[in-house]
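As a warm-up, study this chain.
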Amino acid sequence: QVQLVESGGGLVQAGGSLRLSCVASRIIFMLNAVGWYRQAPGKQRELVAGITGGGATNYADSVKGRFTISRDNAKNTAYLQMNSLKPEDTAVYYCNANVAISPYYSENAWGQGTQVTVSS
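Now compare it with the structure written out below.
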């Protein structure tokens, strides 16, 4: 079963920026739809941003205008650019994707999460 690997998290001051990356743990055919989720302590996991295989995007109201989701199909990698970070953005961020293992088979995959901490 394929897994996703996130990177790019860390500690940043309020107002700062981070870019998260998401890539499959092994060679795949392509990433289809990708979503970035986050889960803060004591809260439910929530969808932050999503991008379809065709590039259409959607965002949670709380991050609109600050976060940008993108993809590089040549690298089978998805990104989440996070600007103007706020302390309330502190959470573990997870990547989720429908991964095409071949042209004929795909499966849903999650990453292990990457911690983002925003200090005030």
